[in-house]
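Propose amino acids for all 595 sites.
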């Protein structure tokens, strides 16, 4: 029996236990973790900041305990969150050289990348430099033909065509050979990147990357498009122009959300700023992307961008002509944008099918070979497109709670891989310790790319397993849900939804709050939608609420056995927009029986 106080249910007495300052609940699929906090202090914070108690609990769980911390998080501002661009190492040198190139009509080449961050970075640079009258062109490598990043071949081609200045966006921090070649050919090179540098940076005129150990810029987690934005904003300031073109803020928001950098501090400010701008006006590219995915609501949030808009832009990297990607993002010709958008929709639909097929293939392999008992999951095939395996690696990592690497095997004997890891295990650092096995690699703590001889894969797996085992137990590698707060059905109302909006934008390091609701019973058997989704009508504390479980067909037999037995739900509070009406729903992720 669960007792209640102030309509807030106590933790389950039968399926949970507390240790190390956390409460653990075993769900049907995940292990749930809820940090223990001072409930009296939570209520005080709720009153002091005019917040619903569950929202104050979320903030407490996430470490926002002092009044100034809470105010800083809830009310981001330019003055508070945006350091001056000149603080970034190499920025002043880069701006002076770029301004001279613009004024003297020197040929400038923007060298980008084929993912969303690279495409938005190149598009932002062009949208800022074209109005200044720059003699500018751009190059995005083809994933299959050119590979990733600035190459010696690319530098030589630029020099042959008379370019005096190359600016990389979202790449270049590992392009040592290309930088050497640029210096030999008398081409000035400005590198703007946000990936972690290796021991030494390339010998360029200026290297702008906040992750450099001696870079004083206080915020280290900008996306590539964020670093590009800082360069362009300082250039405009240098020229006495108050503000970048409106398009730049849209592109900054898109690339930041899509590249899954932490949505805190400066990133949080700019994403909020960009989302506010697209409320009243949406560019040609956004209109087409929204129509492609039937996104009809007027006000978008970061989850709409991350799950409905960004995946389509990723498909741009698979276009035969990579230039079409930038043309799509910045063209004022709606018919041209619409034409490319139709291709994007087709390619994205095909990508979903390929991704689903690889995921199912890997799920079968994991079960057959017992990989779910390994410290790291590694898969490889010459049939898997390189542009999709990163998405599959992310899904497998969340499914099994283990670092995952997926490899595309090429005909030259190399394996090109995408890694996805847990916050508890820094995959970039681990790859650094295995660098003798690897031809090249780059990335971040939770996501990285690498290339190595195929014969080195078994040794890489063994070494990574040893590094993970030294840091994490197998129990810690189980799939888990980090809960933010308990919630009663009586607390699910418009005020709670308004408070949730104050916590947005949601994403990396600021996930959508995950609540636990106890003492829930099923009113009637769940409705099965599209064979894999469930819609339930649930009852708790005198209130009926619909709950939708996406991709959880495994819960059908569980619910059949429950009948009138109480259970707990881990889930999100969401709003459903349909036919001009908005309703509050629950999106369930897992259930725990016996509470």
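Proposal:
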């Amino acid at each position: 029996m669960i007792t209640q106080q102030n309509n807030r249910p106590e933790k389950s007495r039968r399926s949970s236990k507390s240790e190390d300052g956390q409460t653990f609940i075993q769900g049907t699929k995940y292990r749930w973790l809820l940090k223990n906090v001072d409930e009296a202090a939570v209520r005080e914070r709720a009153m002091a900041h005019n917040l619903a108690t569950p929202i104050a609990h979320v903030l407490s769980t996430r470490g926002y305990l002092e009044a100034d911390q809470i105010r800083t998080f809830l009310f981001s501002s330019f003055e508070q969150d945006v350091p001056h661009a000149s603080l970034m190492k190499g920025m002043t040198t880069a701006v002076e050289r770029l301004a001279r190139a613009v004024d003297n009509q020197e040929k400038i080449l923007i060298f980008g990348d084929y993912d969303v961050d690279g495409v938005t970075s190149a598009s932002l640079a062009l949208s800022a430099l074209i109005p200044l009258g720059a003699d500018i062109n751009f190059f995005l490598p083809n994933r299959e033909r050119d590979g990733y990043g600035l190459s010696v071949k690319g530098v030589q081609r630029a020099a042959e065509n008379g370019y005096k200045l190359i600016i990389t966006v979202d790449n270049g921090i590992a392009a040592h050979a290309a930088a050497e070649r640029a210096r030999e050919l008398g081409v000035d090179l400005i590198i703007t990147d946000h990936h972690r540098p290796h021991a030494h940076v390339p010998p360029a005129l200026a290297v702008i990357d906040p992750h450099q150990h001696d870079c004083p810029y206080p915020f280290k987690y900008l996306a590539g498009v964020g670093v590009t934005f800082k360069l362009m904003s300082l250039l405009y300031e240098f020229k006495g122009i108050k503000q970048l073109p409106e398009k730049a803020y849209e592109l900054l928001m898109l690339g930041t959300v899509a590249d899954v950098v932490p949505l805190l501090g400066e990133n949080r400010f700019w994403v909020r700023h960009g989302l506010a701008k697209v409320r009243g006006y949406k560019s040609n590219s956004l209109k087409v992307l929204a129509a492609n995915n039937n996104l009809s609501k007027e006000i978008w949030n970061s989850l709409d961008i991350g799950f409905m808009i960004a995946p389509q832009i990723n498909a741009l990297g698979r276009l035969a002509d990579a230039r079409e990607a930038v043309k799509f993002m910045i063209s004022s010709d709606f018919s041209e944008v619409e034409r490319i958008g139709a291709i994007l929709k087709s390619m994205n639909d095909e990508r979903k099918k390929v991704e689903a097929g690889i995921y199912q293939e890997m799920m079968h392999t994991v079960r057959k070979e017992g990989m779910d008992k390994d410290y790291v999951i590694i898969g490889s095939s010459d049939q898997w497109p390189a542009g999709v395996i990163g998405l599959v690696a992310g899904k497998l990592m969340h499914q099994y709670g283990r670092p995952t690497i997926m490899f595309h095997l090429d005909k030259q004997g190399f394996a090109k891989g995408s890694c996805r890891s847990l916050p508890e295990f820094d995959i970039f650092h681990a790859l650094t310790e295995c660098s003798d096995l690897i031809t090249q690699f780059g990335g971040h703590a939770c996501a990285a790319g690498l290339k190595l001889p195929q014969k080195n894969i078994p040794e890489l797996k063994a070494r990574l397993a040893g590094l993970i085992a030294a840091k994490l137990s197998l129990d810690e590698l189980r799939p888990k849900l980090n809960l933010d707060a308990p919630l009663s059905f009586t607390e699910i109302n418009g005020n709670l939804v308004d408070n949730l909006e104050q916590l947005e934008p949601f994403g990396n390091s600021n996930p959508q709050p995950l609540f636990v609701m106890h003492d829930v019973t099923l009113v009637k058997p769940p409705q099965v939608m599209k064979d894999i989704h469930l819609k339930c009508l649930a009852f708790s504390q005198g209130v009926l609420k619909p709950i939708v479980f996406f991709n959880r067909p495994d819960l059908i037999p569980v619910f059949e056995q429950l009948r009138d037995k109480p259970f707990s739900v881990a889930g999100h509070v969401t709003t459903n927009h349909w036919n001009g009406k908005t309703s509050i729903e629950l999106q369930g992720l897992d259930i725990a029986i016996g509470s």
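The longest helix spans residues 334-369. Residues 1-14 have pLDDT under 50 and may be disordered.
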